[in-house]
Amino acid sequence: MIEERGALIAGDTLSDVLIPLLDLNETADPIGDYLAALRLVEDAADDIDVLIPGHGSIGGPDQIHARLEQDRAYLHALRDAQVVSDQRVGPSATYDWLPGVHERQLQNLARRRERDRTPRIEIVSRDTCFGSNTRSLSADGRPYLARKARP
After folding, report:
1. Confidence at 2, pLDDT banded by 50, 70, 90
2. Among 13, 24, 96, 121, which one is most buried in terms of CB atoms within 10 A?
3. d(CA 61, CA 21)
């Protein structure tokens, strides 16, 4: 934000043509993180006279809250696995590749939800049966260490 000018240079957020692009690989809660960032912008919204997104049109003070709500509605629909009603990914989308990005985000989030609900399966060899640590695998085969109580 350039405070003396009341300008927010928003990068890839608050665009009227792009949906929120989530970091689905490096963060535990990509939707929560994005919503937190939107709250920070909202806290400063009264001091913003001009919104300059990295993509799309420049907006005035009246556009800031509208774009915050548009991004928030998109994120809530993704989080809740609901149908997204957003012109940015509909038939009139500015970028023809954006609906594909939306679909990939939906698929990745569905996989994450499924993975997070997957029960852990413990695999114990005879050699480690009485050790303090046992090697365990999640149902998808990823190893993790679990503490085993001594008999």
Report:
1. low
2. 13
3. 23
Residues contacting 66, CB < 8 A, separation 6+: 59
Which helix (H) or strand (E) element contains residue 78?
helix 61-79
Distance, CA of 122 to CA of 133 (rounded, Å): 11
SS3 content of the chain, % helix, strand, coil (to 5): 40, 15, 40
Q: What angle do CA 12, 56, 109 make, to 5 degrees?
A: 40
Structure tokens at 148: 């085993």
pLDDT in tens, 58-104: 888 888 889 889 999 999 988 888 878 888 888 888 888 888 898 89
